[in-house]
Amino acid sequence: MRSNECRPRTTWPLRTTSAGWPGLKRCWWRRGCWHVSEPRFRPGSRVRTTVVDPPHHTRVPRYVRGRVGEVVEFQGRYPLPDDRAQQLPDSRIEPVYAVRFAARDLWGDGSHDVTVDLWESYLTEEP
């Protein structure tokens, strides 16, 4: 295998996610290559959102930046909106998760939950 060839971590056939989407991830070794990979976070995982405020479009709402939430569901893989907003020719494809936050943690009061769809690069694992 040459150094620029794909090195998939799992084998075929493609498995599908709970949402019915192929578990595909863009290969970092070779452009245009796809292979199977597992989502980084599982339902019930505690995660913290990034605090970054980029000069371009992002899908991280300001009210959840830096907050801790719980992954509810893996929703499949989609192009990263940040890359598309910058008109990059080859947008990254990332896992998207439904993440639940307590309203009182976001705004100081409220007995309900707020669920936001967030891409994997916006999240870090919270111990």
Structure characterization notes:
Mean pLDDT is 77; it is low at 1-23. The strands form two sheets. A five-stranded antiparallel beta sheet has the order 6-5-4-3-7. Strands 1-2 form a two-stranded antiparallel sheet. The chain is globular, with a radius of gyration of 16 Å. It is mostly beta strands and 127 residues long. The protein has helices at 81-85, 103-107, and strands at residues 24-26, 34-36, 46-49, 68-79, 93-102, 113-119, 123-125. The protein has a domain at 40-125: SH3 type barrels. It is built from two helices and seven strands; from the N terminus they run ββββαβαββ.
- The overall pLDDT, averaged over residues, is 77
Percent in strands: 25-35%
Helical percent range? under 10%
CATH topology of the domain at 40-125: SH3 type barrels
Low-pLDDT parts are 1-23
Strand order of the largest sheet: 6-5-4-3-7
- The separation of the N and C termini measures 39 Å
Secondary structure tally, helices: 2
Q: Spell the H/E element sequence.
A: EEEEHEHEE
Biggest beta sheet summary: 5 strands, antiparallel
What structural category do the secondary elements indicate? mainly beta
User: What is the CATH-assigned architecture of the domain at 40-125?
Assistant: Roll
Instruction: Tell me the Rg in angstroms.
Output: 16 Å
How many strand elements?
A: 7
The CATH class of the domain at 40-125, by name, is Mainly Beta
Protein name: Nitrile hydratase subunit beta
Pfam family, one: NHase_beta_C
Domain Nitrile hydratase beta subunit: 37-124
InterPro entries: CN_hydtase_beta_dom_C, Elect_transpt_acc-like_dom_sf
